[in-house]
């Protein structure tokens, strides 16, 4: 089932999310719905707050990037990089800082350069509640950091300089009022 994505201005996007346990009601169904929603919106990551749930759950599917020539060296790895992160905790961020033009399904039509470190160490549970501690790099680390921010109540626009924040303020106001057009299911703040 395709769920509506919450738009900028919705209070749930600013909440620090709560952990869940293996008995969370219909977790498998929720994860399936999140992947359906992500695919429908042509995204590469989706966090539970973006569908109105303040729980520590996000998904990543970077396979659409496998055809991008910028990622030719890791294309085969990207094709199969589809992961579920439950109760994630970033343990360490390291490596080189790099700028990348980020966007967000909750903030359509806004893209800005965000600086992040290129390597993360993260602890999380998968959909079977098996615990993992993994290190991710490159675009995969970037997408995970972006989605992790969501479960912490942080949006990519929070990483912008004060000048850039002022420059996008008008667009953000329009999004929060529903004065935009998107080609996926979206729910605007009331």
UniProtKB/TrEMBL annotation:
Catalytic reaction equation(s): N-terminal N-formyl-L-methionyl-[peptide] + H2O = N-terminal L-methionyl-[peptide] + formate
UniProt-listed InterPro entries: Peptide_deformylase, Peptide_deformylase_sf
Binding locations of Fe cation: 104, 146, 150
GO molecular function, one term: metal ion binding
Protein's GO biological process: translation
Active site: residue positions: 147
Pfam families documented for this protein: Pep_deformylase
SUPFAM superfamilies: Peptide deformylase
Record text on cofactor binding: Binds 1 Fe(2+) ion.
Cofactors, names only: Fe(2+)
Keyword entries, A-Z: Hydrolase, Iron, Metal-binding, Protein biosynthesis
The enzyme's E.C. designation: 3.5.1.88
This protein's record includes keyword Magnesium: no
Stated family: Belongs to the polypeptide deformylase family.
NCBIfam families named among the record's database cross-references: pept_deformyl, PRK00150.1-3
Function: Removes the formyl group from the N-terminal Met of newly synthesized proteins. Requires at least a dipeptide for an efficient rate of reaction. N-terminal L-methionine is a prerequisite for activity but the enzyme has broad specificity at other positions.
Protein name: Peptide deformylase
